[in-house]
Specification:
heterotrimer; A: mainly alpha; Helix Hairpins; 4 helices; 87% helix; elongated; C: mainly alpha; 6 helices
């Protein structure tokens, strides 16, 4: 039963993240959605490590995921700030305008 | 020097020279000319040194760690002869360029690409690893493209270069496919492992046929054969020494080399040899007719290159690798001579249109004589090198192939005579008043002299040539010949008399051909390569059009990208769900 | 135990939903930190306290701080203009795809969670997964650069004001 709950949670988190990515047009919101998505992935990794008995491997991968996910958030926010400074908007499209 | 140092120096030394020349940045023109020629002459000397290593059957391995694995090189006669051609004719072309390219801009790029090409060509024919061969194969394609488009402010040159690059990519894809299939079958990129497996029938016949035919595609694209032959005439926008080196003597031979090398592996594949014969034959006939109807001096030579490469295809298809390789050597020498002599003519009068040429024989006797020697070798007049190799091919066709092939080959011999004499007549005979002709400088004359001597005498090497091929290529069933045996072979075959008679008839027709121009419609058709050009551009246009049509799905909007991702996920899930 | 999992999972999904759908970036950031904290609890329950601690400190702590700081610079902008994908389409494709995924996983007999307690084993990280560490080092360097990029505009403005004074 617990396994089913966890699977349901993973699928739910990913679904919420993907849905938000599909309809949002605000760059900070995109980062929030990515964070939610990655949380789901991380739980999945830990779960897989547990049921396959490879907890060490799963933990070290989860650690990498945490680092990567934080960096993604940092870079995304930096881009949002730069886009805001340069174009006056934090729309996702404004990043494309940064190169001009 | 030992084999272990000779092989890498033949590849890396010209590449180092190329970097050196590239770094010179056109600052001092004379120094660039000098550096390039010194590097290429040293390469030529090293390549001559390599010929003494024939018979040293060692395969040299260089280990490059886990990622690259072992790079294997071997020096068998087939590779060494092409190395010799590439380096010696390469150095002659570079020396010729010293005069021909005088005062041009971007010389460092020009010489850097030529030296890069020479090194890559040596690597291509010396390696025994098909994946490394693919690497060098693509480097030569890159150099060819770069040098065709050398005058990059001329739209024709850029177009010709792109066309050559795109069409030879078919060859690259074919070779890559064959390499991957070979790896799939024998779990090694080593050519010798594959050859052994193929000869011992360890590979399934269907797979072997697939590899064989993809290699024919690779060779036909690289050697500019039917149906890919349209890129070579357009490649004539390149500077003439480049045409002589890359598009006559070396790179276009890579396809022939590939087929000769793999010949024993596929000889038993049904229809493989026949395909080769017919690919060659159609190319020969089409381009011979095209050569008669064009007025551009370099295009005539390009068409004749295609048709001579077709002869080599037919030779290999008839099972005589020796005849093919021998014709390759002869052709490399006399076609380089023809191109360089044509280059001297173009340098003198500044145009490529034969209609505005004429009367060169009196004005520049040396250049004209060397062109004449090349032309006679091309038509196969006795004692010139082209005669011997062409008769060897005809003899093997007579022995192995059907009468129809033989008759068509004899017709093509006549056509060769017609276009060669027509071209010679238009350029060198008759009258024309040139107010000003550039004289031919000494370096050009030296190069032409060396090549003329080569065209007159290279056939004497047949006994060394056949002996070393026989020694180093045990699977190819090559018989060794010496000069008297070869003469006996050729003169006892009635085909020789036929061929000479047809050549004479061809000369007569060309001589009596009226001077007036061909009708406009025919010229248009020949400029279009009998419609093959339209097919090519049609393919290109349709690809561009379809790309234009589907570009609207690339919105660059994140939401749509994620949506597409989800659609993909859904597809995968549905497939998984169905497969349960 | 099952009830605890159920409770945390429900809270987690609710927090995630709120984080993505709520109006106002600041509130979204706070809900996100809640999501992170709940994830961390879940991981702790699943037997990885080390990872749980790191997730809590980095995910709920550092990222939230950065979010709040950035939002103070960007401001809360209401995006108007074209909506690219209609909501019903987005919802239906998400529900269908993840529904199939969930059903497919649930139909199979899922191995039971053992929830064995595992320590963060130093050997695994420093010896067996050296590549991971190298990658993380690279990532952290780019993260530092990112943080510099975040504070750059504010610092520049501050320096300019100081010079003008």
């Amino acid at each position: 039963m617990i396994s089913k709950i966890i699977i349901f949670g993973i699928v739910g988190l990913m679904g919420i993240g993907i849905y938000c990515l599909m309809i949002t047009r605000n760059l900070p919101k995109v980062i929030v959605a990515l964070q939610v998505l990655i949380k789901g992935a991380m739980i999945a990794i830990i779960y897989a490590g547990d049921i396959s008995g490879n907890m060490d491997l799963a933990q070290s991968m989860a650690l990498t995921i945490i680092v990567a996910d934080t960096i993604v958030a940092v870079i995304g926010l930096a881009l949002a700030i730069q886009a805001r400074e340069k174009t006056g908007s934090s729309k996702i499209q404004s990043i494309s305008n940064l190169k001009k | 020097m030992s084999l272990e140092t000779l092989i890498p120096s033949l590849i890396l030394f010209p590449w180092l020279g190329s970097i050196l020349v590239w770094a010179m940045h056109d600052r001092n023109e004379k120094r660039i000319h000098m550096t390039a020629s010194v590097v290429s002459i040293i390469c030529a000397l090293v390549s001559i040194q390599l010929t003494f290593q024939i018979g040293n059957q060692k395969i040299v391995y260089y280990t490059f760690g886990a990622a690259l694995g072992e790079l294997s090189f071997s020096a068998d006669a087939m590779g060494v002869i092409l190395v010799l051609i590439a380096n010696v004719i390469g150095s002659l072309a570079v020396i010729f360029s010293m005069d021909y390219m005088q005062g041009e801009r971007n010389l460092s790029r020009y010489y850097a690409m030529i030296l890069l090409f020479i090194g890559a060509m040596s690597g291509l024919v010396l390696t025994a690893n098909i994946f490394i061969m693919f690497f060098f194969w693509e480097v030569t394609a890159l150099c060819s493209y770069q040098l065709i488009s050398f005058y990059n402010d001329d739209p024709n040159a850029v177009r010709g270069g792109l066309k050559a690059l795109l069409m030879t990519q078919f060859g690259g894809v074919g070779l890559l496919f064959a390499a991957l299939m070979i790896f799939n079958q024998v779990h090694s990129f080593d050519l010798n492992v594959f050859a052994e497996a193929a000869v011992n029938v360890d590979i399934e016949q269907g797979v072997l046929a697939l590899i064989g035919f993809s290699l024919i595609i690779a060779a036909a694209a690289k050697s500019s054969q039917f149906p890919f032959f349209t890129w070579l005439p357009d490649a004539m926008e390149a500077p003439t020494p480049v045409s002589a080196l890359i598009h006559a003597a070396t790179m276009v031979n890579a396809g022939i080399y590939l087929l000769s090398r793999f010949f024993p592996a596929f000889a038993a594949v049904p229809a493989w040899k026949e395909t080769m014969i017919w690919v060659g034959l159609i190319g020969i006939l089409l381009t011979s007719i095209l050569a008669i109807t064009t007025y551009d001096l370099k295009r005539v030579l390009a068409y004749s290159t295609v048709s001579q490469l077709g002869y080599m295809f037919v030779a290999i298809g008839s099972g005589s690798v020796l005849a093919g390789q021998f014709h390759l050597l002869s052709h490399a020498i006399f076609k380089a001579l023809l191109f360089l002599a044509a280059g001297a003519v173009i340098h003198a009068c500044g145009t490529r249109d034969m209609r505005s040429m004429g009367g060169f024989f009196k004005r520049t006797p040396f250049v004209s004589t060397s062109f004449l020697i090349g032309a006679l070798a091309l038509t196969g007049i006795p004692i010139l090198n082209g005669f011997w190799s062409k008769e060897l091919i005809l003899e093997s066709v007579h022995k192995e192939s059907s009468t129809l092939v033989l008759i068509l080959m004899l017709i093509s011999v006549g056509l060769t005579a017609i276009y060669t004499l027509r071209c010679f007549k238009m350029v060198f005979m008759g009258k024309n008043d040139y107010a000003h002709l550039h004289p031919s400088p000494p370096a050009m004359k030296t190069v032409l002299g060396i090549l003329s001597i080569g065209a007159l005498t290279s056939w004497i090497a047949i006994s060394w040539f056949s002996e070393s091929l026989k020694q180093t290529l045990p699977y190819h069933a090559i018989e060794s010949l010496n000069v008297t045996e070869m003469a006996h072979h050729i003169f006892s075959d009635p085909i020789t008399c036929f061929a000479l008679g047809i050549t004479t008839i061809g000369f007569l027709i060309a001589w009596l051909l009226p001077k007036k121009e061909f009708p406009e419609s025919l010229l248009k058709l020949s400029a279009n390569s009998f419609g093959f050009d339209s097919i090519t551009s049609g393919v290109v246009q349709s690809i561009i059009a379809s790309a234009e049509r589907i570009r609207c799905i690339q919105t660059g909007i994140l939401n749509w990208n994620i949506f597409g991702l989800m659609v993909g996920l859904l597809g995968v899930l549905i497939i998984l769900f169905m497969g349960r | 135990m099952t009830f605890l999992y159920l409770l945390i999972m429900a809270a987690l999904l609710f927090a995630a939903h709120k984080a993505t759908r709520i109006k106002g970036l600041l509130k979204a950031a706070l809900w996100l930190s809640g999501t992170s904290a709940l994830t961390s609890t879940l991981i702790y329950l699943m037997g990885s306290p080390g990872i749980a601690v790191i997730e809590l400190s980095v995910g709920a702590g550092l990222v939230t701080v950065l979010f709040v700081f950035s939002i103070s610079i960007i401001g809360d902008e209401k995006i108007t203009g074209e909506i690219f994908i209609p909501k019903w389409l987005a919802i239906s494709i998400t529900v269908v795809a993840f529904g199939i995924l969930g059903i497919m996983t649930a139909i199979d007999s899922i191995p039971q969670l053992k929830a064995v307690q595992a320590e963060l084993i130093a050997d695994t990280i420093w010896v067996d997964r050296k590549l991971d560490i190298d990658i993380q080092a690279g990532l952290i360097i780019s993260g530092v650069l990112g943080i510099l990029m975040i504070v750059a505009p504010t610092t520049a403005r501050w320096m300019k004001e100081k010079r003008n004074d």
